[in-house]
């Protein structure tokens, strides 16, 4: 059974995972508008992944006898100065998510809530991957500087992202 405070903290994280999905969908729309279909595709895949993260928390709260209470999702930004600025924004957002997951982990330890601790371990590892994948794209974009050719090359690469739909289905 979750304590009321842990239930509240997990509900708060459901909101942030959905906010991440919303933010990346907003970025997909931004890239779509620029004609960068590969970036848009990558962001839409990321939106699906963030929804899966939210649903993992949803399922866990229910399994532990808690009550999911959805909260208001803030409006994400809709414009960025450049594609690089958007990706840097995304990377910083992921760093914030990592801090939130770490704080949740600290709280689970304080509460002696071992089940939540084990559940959160998956997210601790996932955040390493998230920061790495966003960081790699930012680094590539910095390397090409303002070269349109370089940007279209990265765009083609990002168009190849394949989403594991089985993974998403498991969380539904
Ligand atoms: Fe749900 Fe991108 O972290």
From TrEMBL:
Keywords: Cytoplasm, Iron, Iron storage, Metal-binding, Oxidoreductase. Residues 1-145 form the Ferritin-like diiron domain. Fe cation binds at residues 17, 50, 53, 94, 127. It comes from the Bacteria. It is found in: Cytoplasm. GO terms for cellular component: cytosol. Its main location: cytoplasm. It is an enzyme of class 1 (oxidoreductase). CDD domains: Nonheme_Ferritin. It catalyses: 4 Fe(2+) + O2 + 6 H2O = 4 iron(III) oxide-hydroxide + 12 H(+). GO terms for biological process: intracellular iron ion homeostasis; iron ion transport. Its EC number is 1.16.3.2. The keyword Cytoplasm applies. GO terms for molecular function: ferric iron binding; ferrous iron binding; ferroxidase activity; identical protein binding. Belongs to the ferritin family. Prokaryotic subfamily. Iron-storage protein. This is Ferritin.
